[in-house]
Design a protein that fits this description.
Blueprint lengths: L6 H6 L6 H5 L3 H4 L4 H10 L5 E5 L12 E5 L3 H4 L9 E2 L13 E7 L8 H11 E10 L1 H4 L3 H6 L1 H10 L3 H7 L3 E5 L2 E2 L14 H4 L2 H5 L3 H4 L2 H17 L1 H6 L7 E2 L3 E7 L2
Parallel strand pairs: 1-2, 1-4, 2-3, 4-5
Antiparallel strand pairs: 5-9, 6-9, 7-8
The structure holds S-adenosylmethionine.
S-adenosylmethionine binds next to loops.
Length: 264
């Protein structure tokens, strides 16, 4: 059972379906890999020839020039993988069907906050990886300062602080760690929740929200109230008076972090 419990799951008792079977339907359209993140991730993989992608989803950020093994629990996400992507094994981080030290590098992109048990998942990742672990994740302390979290829905940060492993935890848990800031470009193609820091109108689009789990996790009335305020502030010009300078900015640090652990 995933630790992400959707509000309507409570009503329907659908505790066992992988969450992304419910919310991942339009994922590959809205969450297109961003070339700048791709370059950073591929650079961090270094000379690794074999790469394990855990929580691989639709195949974003998988390097085409290396041997990739993809692990993904949701059949809905697996079905959206391109034809030329590595075939995915339906499994979870907590129980990887791989031999000890069998891959050069392991990649975890926007996934650890979905794992049932991060501690167990990292034990597994450490067991199967020879040289390097590369994680793209969010520092929720930085994220909490972004206007969406700070002014409209502080519950995003409250929720995410419970599910995302903190930078301090990762530092204590993984050897030889380097944490790098990844500025999010204004025209970021990977539409994760806080990628829209200069495009507030996009957040009013339900298709955009549909591809980020947080919008499915918070109570509907709470989300509606925040969206009504955002719509009103955009109509009145208040949002632009307060945050409009962001519209001209090329990139912003909203908390995205590239975390690299060297094992060898
Ligand atoms: C936000 S998506 C990221 C997918 C992909 N890495 C990307 O960057 O587009 C999170 C993924 O983690 C997967 N996931 C959820 N629980 C998991 C677990 N316990 N182990 C591995 N992956 C999991 C979800 O099914 C989903 O595909």
């Amino acid at each position: 059972m995933s630790k992400l419990i959707l509000m309507d799951d409570y009503a329907q008792g659908a505790w066992t379906a992988p969450v992304y079977d419910r919310i991942g339907l339009n994922y590959s359209q809205i969450r297109r890999p961003d070339p700048r993140f791709e370059a950073a991730i591929w650079g961090a993989l270094g000379s690794a020839k074999s790469v394990l992608n855990v929580g691989a989803g639709c195949g974003s950020y998988e390097p085409a020039d290396r041997e990739v093994t993809a692990i993904e629990p949701s059949p809905v996400m697996i079905a959206q993988r391109p034809e030329n992507a590595a075939p995915a094994i339906q499994a979870s981080a907590e129980d990887l069907p791989l031999r000890d030290k069998s891959v050069d590098a392991t990649l975890c992109v926007f996934t650890m906050h979905h794992w049932d048990n991060v501690e167990q998942g990292l034990d597994e990742v450490l067991r199967v990886t020879r040289d390097r672990i590369v994680i793209l994740t969010v520092d929720t302390d930085v994220m909490a300062r972004m206007w969406l979290c700070h002014e409209y829905l502080p519950e995003i940060a409250v929720h995410d602080r419970r599910t995302f492993p903190s930078m301090e935890y990762l530092e204590a848990r993984l050897p030889h760690l380097h944490i790098g800031t990844v500025p999010v470009p204004a025209d970021c193609t990977d539409g994760f929740c806080i990628a829209f820091w200069s495009r507030p109108e996009a957040i009013l689009d339900s298709r955009v929200r549909g591809a980020s789990s947080i919008w499915h996790l918070l109570p509907v009335a709470m989300v509606e109230e925040a969206l009504t305020r955002l719509r009103r502030d955009l109509d009145s010009g208040d949002w632009d008076r307060r945050f409009g300078q962001l519209r001209g900015q090329a990139a912003l640090d909203v908390g995205l972090r590239l975390v690299v652990s060297e094992l060898a």
